[in-house]
TrEMBL record:
Pfam families: Methyltransf_2
GO terms for MF: O-methyltransferase activity
InterPro entries associated with the record: COMT-like (IPR016461), COMT_C (IPR001077), SAM-dependent_MTases_sf (IPR029063), WH-like_DNA-bd_sf (IPR036388)
Highest taxon, organism lineage: Bacteria
Presence of the UniProt keyword Transmembrane in the record: yes
Keyword S-adenosyl-L-methionine: yes
Family annotation (PROSITE patterns): SAM_OMT_II
PANTHER family per the UniProt record, alphabetical: O-METHYLTRANSFERASE CICE, PUTATIVE (AFU_ORTHOLOGUE AFUA_4G14580)-RELATED
Transmembrane region(s): 20-39
Database matches in Gene3D superfamilies: Vaccinia Virus protein VP39, Winged helix-like DNA-binding domain superfamily/Winged helix DNA-binding domain
Protein name per its UniProtKB record: O-methyltransferase family 2
Taxonomic lineage: Bacteria, Pseudomonadati, Thermodesulfobacteriota, Desulfobacteria, Desulfobacterales
Length: 339
């Protein structure tokens, strides 16, 4: 029977795509690491997990956040232990163990790649491409940069509109969309705020893809494209810095550098806006974000950060009045003011 009122937002469609690697990380945890049998010996701290299993902190954090969000492990007093479900079914010597069932999939390429990423901390090839480069290296290829930028532009058609409806730039003059890709976010916010000047900062060759995309939207007269490296220097003269789906591609040291660069160049009274899929402060969800983080951990140097992690980084950089606002599809806006 057809429903009278149907939600046509693409939240579920975004999740189907973004969660594609999560099941493989679970298989890897069960079949390659025997992680739940390890925890059956008693609750462990995060450092104990990394040390005893010989895995790196960034991918380990993503795995632990996924298992917390799946309610397969629990945390208490900074220690991680088994949940009732995993104690019964995911421990090797349990009478009801499903470990052999999971082990039948341990040689899937993605599971083996996750095992390598967990051990080394280095990302695998984008989209599990055989002998492929990581996302960072792939973006130096003009053909890949064009394809990837177009992909993010299609996602942004929905998310950028929702962000433009949420973010308040009415008292500000100039927005810089940093690592803005196709420029979809700058275009959406500028369309809603006619008096706002806007520009996109992108590294070559992505800057050329951004120019073509902005031109196709008929926004070249409103949106400038600035070629540059955000890690070296962020241009001055802007009182809003937008990082939309940018921080999640980088490790925490790189994100800390970007926040510091933003604070240094942002005009007084301006604010930083970090729009992304963020975990809650306890890293126990949302599940959709924990699933998406698996893809990012696998193929980039980053992950989905928690609201607390980003808030702490912004405050350490000098920003004040840090606020978290829900936007859409489990994406949030974290803002901080340069007072």
């Amino acid at each position: 029977m057809k429903k009278d009122s149907q939600n046509t937002d693409p939240d579920r469609l975004l999740r189907y795509r973004d969660s594609i690697y999560a099941a493989d990380l679970l298989v890897c945890a069960v079949a390659c690491l025997d992680f739940f049998t390890f925890l059956s010996e008693g609750p462990k701290t995060f450092d104990e997990i990394c040390d005893k299993m010989e895995i790196q902190p960034r991918p380990a954090d993503v795995m632990v956040s996924l298992l917390l969000s799946m309610e397969l492990i629990e945390t208490n007093a900074h220690r991680y232990g088994l949940a009732e479900l995993s104690a019964k079914y995911l421990v090797s010597d349990s009478p009801d163990s499903l470990v052999p069932y999971y082990r039948s999939l341990k040689n899937r390429p993605q599971c083996l790649e996750f095992h390598e990423v967990l051990k080394t901390g280095r990302p695998a090839g984008w989209s599990s491409k055989d002998k492929g480069d990581s996302w960072t290296k792939s973006m130096e290829n003009p053909e890949f940069a064009d394809t990837f930028t177009a992909a993010m532009d299609s996602r942004g058609a929905f998310l950028a509109r929702k962000l433009a409806e949420t973010i308040d730039v009415s008292q500000h003059n100039a927005l810089l969309d940093i690592a803005g890709g196709s420029g979809i976010y700058a275009c959406s916010i500028a369309n809603r705020n006619p008096r706002l000047a806007a520009a996109v900062l992108e590294i070559p060759p992505v800057d050329l893809a951004a120019k073509r995309s902005i031109e196709s939207k008929g926004m070249s007269a409103r949106i400038n494209v600035v070629a540059g490296n955000m890690f070296d220097k962020i241009p001055t003269g802007y009182d809003v810095h937008l990082f939309a789906n940018a921080f999640h591609d980088w490790d925490i040291d790189a994100v800390t550098t970007l926040a510091a660069n933003s604070f240094k160049s942002l005009s007084p009274g301006g604010f930083i806006a970090v729009f992304d899929a963020h975990l809650n402060q306890f890293k126990t969800g949302p599940l959709s974000v924990a699933e998406y983080s698996c893809l990012l951990m696998h193929s980039t140097e980053g992950k989905c950060y928690s609201t607390k992690e980003i808030g702490d980084i912004l405050m350490s950089a000098g920003f004040g009045r840090v606020e978290v606002t829900d936007v859409a599809a489990d994406r949030t806006l974290i803002s901080g003011k340069k007072l």
